[in-house]
Amino acid sequence: MRLLLILSLVSSLSFAQQSDSDDWGDDSWDTDWAEQETGLQFTGFIEGGLGGRLQSSALHSRQTLSGARVRIESQYSWQDVRLTAKGDVGFDGVQQKWQTGWRELSAQTSLGQHLDLKLGRQVLTWGTGDYVFLNDLFPKDWLAFFAGQDDEYLKAPADAVRLTAFHDWANLDIAWMPEFTPDNYINGEVFSFFSPWAGITIAPGFHAETPNDDEWALRLYKTLNGTEWALYGYQGYEKSPKSLTVAGLPYFAPLTAWGGSVRLPVGDGLFNFEFSRHRSTDDNDGHNPRISNSKDLVLIGYEWELVTRLTAGVQLYLEHTNNHGALLAASPFPQWESNHNRSVLTNRLTWRDSAELWTLSLFSFYSLSDKDFYLRPSASYRLNDQWRFSAGANLFGGDTQYDFFAQFKDNNNVWLRIRYAY
Amino acid sequence: MQRIRLLAPLLFAMALPASAQDIDAREIVKQAELAAYYAGDDGRSAARMLIKDAQGRTQTRQFIILRKDREDGGAQDMMVFFSRPSDVRNTVFRVVKQVERDDDRWLYLPGLDLVKRISAGDKRTSFVGSHFFYEDVSGRRTDEDSFTLLSDEGERYVLEGKPTDPASVEFNRYVVEIDKQTKLPMLINFYQNGDQPYRRVEALKIENIQGHPTVTHSRVSDLQSGGSTEMQFRFVSYDLGLPDDIFSERSLRNPPTDWLTLRD
């Protein structure tokens, strides 16, 4: 019933679009030229998705993705200010609830020649990793990622003030989030995970209390002769509640981070290097097993075209836990703590047909240290400017029940999405 | 300055008649490159494409191109701002065309706020799903082919181009017809084997804009599959005085609205 409502809403929207004089469909090709846009224009899409587990789960129903959403986007320029609104209205059949919200609701302007300001809800991204984030500590939606939602939804929006200063020497990005925005983390509501404190795979559907505090993120960057340099800083909290309070409740431990990256063409491909030092300031010496230890993260990657229209990307990601000895000594479950050095190899293969209608992609994570993996195969077909069909899978595996990817192996799923853009 | 540049190769050819054949052909091609890709010091245009597959199904693209030359026939900055269809709206493509090495290319995906850098890759692949290749849009380097002048009778030069590295491209040779007056390539037929072309690039309409003959309507046909893409340009203007700093990452997130406002 709710789906019907959404469908009728969209069909009325797309009908309105057709009567728009701005249209330059096939008929108007020889005569009309789309004139410059005047007034408010609405674009967006409607999307339906279905996904299910490959094996039944004692903790969850079979469905991992079910529902439909309508995206409505519009932009308006007033004086030198660009206003952008992108909203989602949808129903999530898995969690049986409406999901509505702004993806973006922002005002952007230039303050003089060397300063840009963007205010309001927005998606923020930086760093060089592909599905691996070291210095990008802006919110992610891991639930959407695991359920097979469009890549766009991996990045969750945040309410922020973003100020960018441009200078010949370097550019400076400052993002201030007045309220800390966590990831949409895996909390058991749709996907189960391993809890070392419980000693089993659980699906509690918990919600940790979000710190009532702000977050800062900085980036100093410059492109020089095709080489992109950047330095980063962050002050806030870990983005998922990986730590526990004394009372045993999950909480977001304070986090400061700094790092750097470089990306440049090497040979026929692109090379990237990034590092980040994550400081867990509530557990500086690592003795508290309830609180995440500090970590040093390193990423090395290379992307190149293997043959025409087939691109390959490989990344090696290293995670070095500081004070690992202290952690093991204090931990009630040293056997389940992560390795002192965790390493993950990722590989992306993307193939497109000559008309760019078909896109086949396989992204894989494989941990060299834990021997567990996560595979993301997908296929997408763009029928025309309106319709796109996508299907894929999220496959986790590994020998243990507790390693990073292996803990999700009860959640293996396949998904299908149909999108109509208007 | 432009006049001197055009005259110089002719004088040079006259002075060296012995090796004239290749030099003549190459100079004609270089002039064609300047006419087709380097008119004015900078340029702006709205563009739209109608993509037809063999079954007659159509897709469209609409975008604005800003271009600025760092030097004539040399490095060049280009930005492409997409407005249609809605799934690519606000996507921005940025290229720094290089002479000594591969071009730098970035794609801005607004939904993710992601500045995605694109590896060098094959430039003879589809530009945004059309039958145009990246190379048709940004120009193929003239030193990648050797040229023979087949005919200079009538109003057009007819030249044959052969790749110096055949493994790097999908064609064996191509025949290009260049208008003697405008120096614009009017027709290019690409051949793989035999005498039947498999791919064709045509200029369908030329307009004189601010003294620069400009292709305002062109078509690429895939003669094997039967599909084709037409591209039209409007609101073309040259020598706007585009500032250097708009060709930057800044413009990906915050497009230079003042320079994207179109007027005839």
From TrEMBL, chain B:
Alphabetized UniProt keyword annotations: Lipoprotein, Signal
Membrane-traversing stretches: none
Name of the molecule in the record: Outer membrane lipoprotein-sorting protein
Domain Uncharacterized protein TP-0789 per the UniProt entry, residue ranges: 75-253
Highest taxon of source: Bacteria
Signal sequence extent: 1-20
Keyword Transmembrane helix: no
